[in-house]
Amino acid sequence: MTIKSITPFLWFDSCAEEAANFYVSLFPDSRITHVSRYGDAGPGPAGSVMVVAFELCGRPFLALNGGPHQKLSEAFSMMVECTDQADIERLHSAAMFHDIGKAKIPLAVLDKPGRLDDDERALIETHPATGYDALKGNADISPEILDAVRHHHEYLDGSGYPDGLCSESITDVVRMLTISDIFAALIEERHYKPAMPRDRAYEILKSMHGKLEMPLVAAFREVALTR
Ligand SMILES: [Fe+2]
User: Fold this and answer.
1) In angstroms, what is the span from residue 129 Cα to ligand 1's centroid?
2) For position 18, which CATH number holds?
3) Which residues surround ligand 1, an ion (CB under 5 A)?
4) Contacts of 227 (CB under 8 A, 6+ apart)
5) Domain that holds residue 176
6) Both 102 and 187 in a single domain?
7) Phi, psi values for residue 60, rounded to 5°
8) Mind listing the pLDDT tens digit for each residue in 157-167?
């Protein structure tokens, strides 16, 4: 017998598709490859999802809605080997600190309902440099985090602030942070605006050609629409 490949097969009660969508949202190079449905012969309801085929980091998996006969066990787990854990930690730290400069902006401006006037807008736009100045003397803050704090409002076309950086000068971590920061600002409810639906917020990201890195925006899609 020649075995070409082995595919893990996961049994769910009725949430195979939801689980597969969640898994593919977590990892790069991941996708749903096929969804088959029960017919009139059952045993599941006709038209409901039977098997979801999906790939995680290019590896095949199958998820079955097999009903309540076999419970998914916590004993099953996936070990994920990251080639660069440091990258993940850098992005996490950068995300934690990026808006720290807003601590110096009066709440009356930060939470102002309605449009900001020119002076208020200029004040808000000081927060990246203010955060950078507050952290730059701290030996525990890496240069990459300082870079993210100062440059998370820069755009690839040079139209951002505070330094008007262009594409090559903006690091990958900062590019990713900028995308997730804009998305979060759109979907979160603030004192001055309601939350925007995730699909509309993602369309805005896609419309920002020239400013955001579109391959990163595409990679962000699963996170944006399925979480
Ligand atoms: Fe910011």
Assistant:
1) 10
2) 3.30.720.100
3) 99
4) 25, 198
5) 85-226
6) yes
7) -80, 145
8) 999 999 999 98
Tell me what the mean pLDDT of segment 9-17 comes to.
Answer: 87
Q: How confident is the model over 61-112, as pLDDT tens digits? A: 998 888 777 666 666 666 666 556 777 777 778 888 889 898 888 888 888 8
- Residue 82 CA to ligand 1 center (angstroms) comes to 29
As given in the structure block, the two tokens for residue 68 are: 């309540």
CATH number for 158: 1.10.3210.10
- Could you tell me the distance, in angstroms and rounded to a whole number, from the CA of residue 226 to the centre of ligand 1? 24
Distance 150 CA to ligand 1 centre (A): 9
Residue 80 lies in a domain: no
Residue 201 alpha carbon to ligand 1 centre in Å? 17
Nearest to 151 by CA among 135, 168, 164: 164
Q: What is the pTM of this model?
A: 0.62
Cα 193 off chain centre by: 22
Strand pairing of 31-37 and 59-65?
A: unpaired
Helix (H, G, I), strand (E, B) or coil at 139: coil
CA 1 to centroid of ligand 1, rounded, Å:
59
